[in-house]
Amino acid sequence: MESETKQCEKCSKSFVIETDDFVFYEKMDLPLPTMCPSCRWKYLLAFWVNGRFRITKSALSGKTIITVLPESVPFPIYERSEFVSDAWDPLTYGKDYDTSRSFLEQLVELQSKVPHPHQVGAKNVNCDWTDDMWESKDAYLTRSGGWSEFISYGYRVIGCKNSIDLTFCWNLELSYDCFYCFKSYNLKYSFNSRDCMDSFFLYDCRNCQNCFMSWNLRNQKYCILNQPYSKEDYFKKIEEYNLASRSSVEALKKEMWKHIQQDAVHRQNYNVQAVQSSGNFLNNDKNCYQGYFLEESENNRYCFRGFGYKECIDSAGCYNSEKCALCTLDQLNGYGNTFCLYTTSCRYSSYLDNCEEVEYCFGCVGLHKNKYCILNKQYTEEEYKKNIEEIKSDMKNRGEWGKFFPLSSAYCGYNLSLAQMMFPLSKEEALKFGAKWEESVESHYENIISGDDLPDTIDKVDDDIVKQRILCPETKLSYNITKEELAFYREHNIPLPQRHFDWRTLDRFKPFSLMVMPQKGNCYSCKKEIEHYYSPELGFQKIACLECYQREVA
Ligand SMILES: [Zn+2]
Ligand SMILES: [Zn+2]
User: Fold this and answer.
1) Ion ligand 2 residue ranges (Cβ < 5 Å)
2) What is d(CA 290, CA 314) in angstroms, rounded to the nearest whole number?
3) What is the whole-number distance in angstroms between the Cα of residue 322 and the centre of ligand 1?
4) Per residue in 34-61, pLDDT tens?
5) Which of 156, 192, 335, 469 is such that its CA lies 20 to 30 A from the CA of 345?
6) Would you call 63 helix, strand, or coil by DSSP?
7) DSSP strand E in 226-348: where?
8) Using CA atoms, how far apart are residues 315 and 295, in angstroms rounded to an integer?
9) What are the phi and psi torsion angles at 357 (to 5°)?
10) pTM of the full predicted structure?
11) Mean pLDDT, to the nearest integer, of 280-296?
């Protein structure tokens, strides 16, 4: 098959279906996509909840629970341990398939009635105010992480300890306001750095100690603006920067961004050991085409964020999935699944929502350890096979086969999903895309103060601040400062944050949302034509091919 150019049904841009894509879709009995790759990712990621924390009660036991699912969800919410228990039977929601109506419509009806778990994650201690956390302790208002301790306001934090405001960080300790940093200690206001200690405002530094506002450094000590100083002069100079003041930190952040734009050399991609692959943020991957944020994966096409994908296409947030297509959050050894959402250890199934350890099921919600079910109704193997053929053929006739769950059935609006983080849209754009939008419902507080009125330095803050509700001027959402957090800021001489933690995470994340589409350009040094991933909006001046980067930086 020759490659074919099509027009995206969502954004109208043209996109190419490559020869190798045809092979995949044909093998999986799927029609060709009608959306361009980035609209396909937006669509799938719109189902990945990144909602606001709220307190509610389990619809089964009445137990108090904290969930990121918005109030607008149509289904009952059960505490997770109750959801996976046998205190209820999802098969009681079973329905016969009505041949005269759309299958997806019937699936969405079922989805709106069957209970869903309040939270994703397991094996945590004191992590009520988290979502998608695993084997962690004392995490607060943190999402998507694991193996961490004493973490607040994190997003995607793995193996981190005693830190606040980390986004996409691995193995950091005593750190604050860092983004995409690895294995570092006492690091602040830094981006894309590894193996660093006691440093501030670093970009692309490795194995540095006591460095300040520096970029592309390797194995350095006592550097400011990439210039080495004596130990005494270094500390004297740092003192002058007045890091205790928010206004000076804000000014320094702006200054650092200018250096990142104008002076730092940027590697054409962030990939580490990506063999015959294209995409960005690949780590130990082989033969992945247009993959982003993938680890330990091979032979995939258009997969977005995840670990251990094998022979998958058009999927997002999967973990050890094999031969799957159009799945979001298909976790732990999923095999041969299509159109699945929040599933764990399922095989040979399609159109599942929140099922665990099921095989050969089609259009089911909330099942555990079942086999041969359709719309939560039990069949024999023979009946199942016969019915599936009929339903698939009906779906093909109606042009439904190949479509994921409708966007209207996402648990939350686009703005509270991961799609907003990776591919931010305005309300109007999201609605035009066909997604929902979640209006913020904020409680009214007496005596609330504006974030703008917080003192400039931490030494002007008294203990009573922990009783105070603070209104974020950007989001109009309120937040508070916890006792532990205040102690951390005092110890590290950090001014109080003026903005809501979700705004801070999104703000930190912004550069990544501009690094997820291939761009044509030239290496700034050798002028060779390269494919890189830095959107022109970032304003990076020195984008280098791998060879030039290696020569000049690494
Ligand atoms: Zn598109
Ligand atoms: Zn070059």
Assistant:
1) 523, 525-526, 528, 545, 548
2) 10
3) 26
4) 999 999 999 999 999 999 999 999 999 9
5) 156
6) coil
7) 227-228, 265-267, 272-275, 279-289, 291-295, 298-307, 313-319, 328-331, 341-344
8) 14
9) 50, 45
10) 0.95
11) 97
